[in-house]
Every structure is written in structure tokens, then in C-alpha cells.
Specification:
mainly alpha, 10 helices, 2 domains
């Protein structure tokens, strides 16, 4: 039976595979990108659109960014988080900067981010469980793997020469794979919620058993105390 990769191995392997498709310049740019830079790009796009009177709903990317920010806070318990999440923020920044040049592409990209964001669970409520449970850490690794795959395929669309001319055909191909990625991410969300529920039930049961054990020990201790006091009574007290 094949052994499962450890959580950190999943992260490292996923990132190594993703880097293969990047140029040296892209690797350098991505590894230095922060969430603040992504927010700056979003603000720039909003200002440009306002001046050109062609506003789009940029809030569609918010669920993704908030979900991934929670994600980074959770994985920092067992990983060098900055190195891994930089390769999430880097592609987001790049894709938004390219897609903003055409309304159709920006609209579809924002829709995609919105759909991904909806599949990312609210992770901070489980942060203590992630620090203690390897199985849940592995699911975090699989989420990272799928997010990188999403970006790998999106980059393939937007990095091509004359990408606008063939955009709708390449995006159609992208969507075929994107649907499967969404299914994967949805399964990961369910796995995390189910695993968290099982762990909480087990912890609650263990706590209840511990309380019952302590209660029984106290009861037995009181009984032994009464018996000991009875044995220490003097013969005169006994006769009386």
C-alpha cells in the first residue's frame, strides 16, 4: 500500500511543479508579491474604470482574497507561509493586470475567482484543529495544489501572444478543466468540515469521559476518607 505524502511534501511538490511553467523573471516577480500589492492593483483598476466610465464589480474577487488570507494564517503553523502564498498572490496580480485591458476577459476572470472563493471554507474557525491534525493539514496541501493548477491554466490563457484574438476559444478549454478543479475544491471543503466535526465530537467525548473519571475519583476519595476516619476512632468512642 503506497504511503501518503506528508503535508509539507504536498506543498513543496505542488510549488515545484508550478514553477516549471514559469520563466525566471516570473519566478522572481511572484516570490516577492504580497497581498498588499494585489489590493493596490485592484484599487488601480477601479480608478481606471471609474475614469473611463466602465465600472465592473471588483468585489467578486474579494471572497477569494479573504479565503486565501485565512488560508495563509492557518498554514503558517507548520510551513514557511510567505514563500508559498507569494506564488498565489503573484499570479493574481499578473492576471488582473493583463485581464484589465479587455472588459470580456476581466469579467470572466473575476467570475472565476468568485467561484473559487465560494469553495474555500472559513478556515480560521478550525485553526487549532489544523495545528494538531495531519489529515487536515494534508487537505490544506491539496487545496494549495488545486489553486496553483487553477493559476497555471489561467496563465496559459493570458500569457499567449495575441491572447485576445483567441481568448474565447482558449477560455472554453480552460473552463473544462476549471469545472473539475471546482469539484475538487468543493470536496476539500466538505472533507475539512466533516473531519473538523469528527474531531470536535471525539474531543467532546474525551472531555466528558475525563470529567466522569475525575468525578468517580473524587467520590472514591471521599469514601476512603470516611472509612479512614472511622478506623481512627478510639475504643471509647466505639463503645459509646
Amino acid at each position: 500500500m503506497a504511503t501518503q505524502d506528508s503535508p509539507d511534501t504536498i506543498f513543496y511538490k505542488s510549488l515545484d511543479r508550478f514553477k516549471i511553467g514559469l520563466t525566471d523573471r516570473e519566478r522572481e516577480d511572484f516570490e516577492l508579491t504580497s497581498l498588499d500589492e494585489v489590493h493596490t492593483v485592484v484599487l488601480e483598476i477601479q480608478n481606471e474604470q471609474a475614469s473611463e466610465r466602465k465600472m465592473q464589480d471588483m468585489t467578486r474577487r474579494q471572497s477569494f482574497l479573504e479565503g486565501m488570507e485565512q488560508y495563509s494564517n492557518v498554514i503558517e503553523v507548520f510551513l514557511d507561509v510567505s514563500m508559498f502564498v507569494a506564488f498565489v498572490w503573484g499570479p493574481v496580480k499578473f492576471l488582473l493586470q493583463v485581464a484589465k485591458t479587455w472588459t470580456d476577459s476581466l469579467d470572466l476572470l473575476l467570475n472565476a475567482y468568485e467561484q473559487v472563493g465560494e469553495t474555500i471554507p472559513q478556515l480560521l474557525q478550525y485553526d487549532k484543529l489544523f495545528s494538531q491534525n495531519t489529515a487536515m493539514q494534508r487537505v490544506l496541501g491539496l487545496i494549495y495544489q488545486d489553486i496553483l493548477e487553477f493559476h497555471r491554466r489561467a496563465l496559459f490563457v493570458f500569457k499567449r501572444r495575441s491572447w485576445k484574438r483567441i481568448f474565447h476559444s482558449t477560455w472554453k478549454t480552460f473552463n473544462t478543466h476549471f469545472s473539475r478543479l471546482l469539484q475538487n475544491l468543493h470536496r476539500h471543503k466538505i472533507d475539512i468540515e466533516r473531519q473538523a466535526s469528527l474531531i470536535e465530537i471525539e474531543q467532546s467525548q474525551a472531555q466528558r469521559e475525563s470529567q466522569e473519571k475525575n468525578s468517580l475519583l473524587k467520590k472514591n476519595s471521599k469514601g476512603r476518607g470516611r472509612q479512614s476516619r472511622s478506623l481512627r476512632r478510639s475504643p471509647l468512642q466505639i463503645l459509646i
